[in-house]
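Problem 3 from the worked examples.
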Amino acid sequence: MLADNGANLVIESAVVEKVFGGLGIDDSKKVIVYGEQDDPSSARIARSIIYHGHTDVRMLDIGFQAWRHAGLPVTRGMPQITPAQFKSKPRNDIRVDTEIIKARMDDPSFIVVDARTLMEHMHASRGAKLCAA
């Protein structure tokens, strides 16, 4: 189920199977996800693949422009992709919801990390001040 604000960013299993399978991804493949250094899209894609049960996913440790600047190989050619059978096996153990967070707020072994960008944080803080006034 999708949240009204899109916060959960979880893709439905049927969509994942079609998209990732269409890219040739199945359990036999190692998946390397890359993007730009400051763009969270690659992390979201990697997380989606992991959430849906793929166990061999990595993220490139530098952005694409840094890769190119370093003179590493790049091709504009499209590889021949053989569709594969990607089977979604959702890992609900890597997600939490509001109720879990509320129940564990006083547990010192439970850590919540605010991963919002500075702009998102500033916008939310400004809204909170307006609401409190």
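Problem 4, a separate protein:
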Amino acid sequence: MLARIAPLTLLLLTLAVAAAGCGKSQSAEEKWANEVCGSVTTWKDSVTTSVNDIENQVKSPSSASIDSIKSSVSSISDATSKLASDLKSTGAPNTPAGAQAKQQLDTFASHLQSSVESAKKTTSSIPANAGITETLTTLASLAPTLQSLGTTAQTTLKSIQSSASSLKDGFQKADSCKPYR
């Protein structure tokens, strides 16, 4: 009886080991795309939350809303600075297409950093005693920059995807890149 069970046990053990090794293995491009898209999504979510907060403050302005609006603008600046830093520190797949993609991300990150500096200057130019109208008028100049950053992020990700089939495949397989396909 034991002689009959041993081959069955061996077969089951072999299948269990084989199944354990069949996990999804990510390519370098997929891992990289997940990291990049994850950072962009975190930034986008943070900016969206802050923009919604500003819109809510504008709908029901009060004396306390000026500080809240400035705080939301600061949150946008902080999130944008973090994205720029994350993108610059993210290594790329070790391929010619990876090097080109890294260059595109670094260019976008530099654009993010200059936009943050501009936003900080705009915010600091608001006088301490400014009213809600003056504050909103000054901050309204930041809206096109924010829209531009969102569009540039989308364009950069699409451009990277189209630069090489291996990168496109990585973006297609990366779960965090679903919103950017």
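Solution to problem 4. Residues 28-59 form the longest helix (32 residues). Helices lie at 2-20, 28-59, 65-89, 96-124, 132-140, 143-163, 165-173.
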